[in-house]
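Revision sheet: structure tokens.
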Amino acid sequence: MISDRIIVPLDVPTLEDAIATLDKLPQVSFWKVGLELFVSTGTQILYILKERQKRIFLDLKFHDIPNTIAGACCSAKAYNVDFLTLHATAGRQALQAAAQAVGGDDFRPKLLAITILTSLNSRELAFDLKIPLELPEYALQMALLAKESGLDGAVCSPQEVAQLRRVCGDDFLLVCPGVRPSWSQAGDQRRVMTPHAAIKAGADYLVIGRPITAAANPVEAWERICEELATVG
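Predicted:
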């Protein structure tokens, strides 16, 4: 189902808030747990999601030396999460160490590399981070590094997804935050696209948070997005 390709973030500070969000949206099958909630609740939220038979995107964005990243990925594998993130900028050795740590069996998390955060724009990439590449080229190079290092996919803005799909191929997972329906506000996301356009461009999964969770009627917002995606040919 197209709705299975929507990942909703549990971007809340407490376990009670997370459970309340889960109760409001029982239709959602795939949830993202990020730094805020994981630091607040630890693994407890992961067990709750598993009890409810939900898929889990553990978005902790590991960025460290190869040995530390390998150990962190090995530990995360024990939680039976579906997706796990690390920064491509950790480097080739760290990415390869992560891939080796989770192994090649079917019951392991898919490793996704962060190419560049969707809160950053071209000016910040050039002037603040001192990276001379154009933003789309930089995102592509990070995705290629991830693929060459044995990772399963990448997290990228929907504005880069068409190029990454074309170059990295159909077997490379592409997960897109920064997805906003036309009727919602962009918030702190700089490089946004509508859900319909992002799927058409080649995204495998969409991360859509505040347009759903902060809506006056979250269920209605969810259904509205699902209806929009149902028209993707």
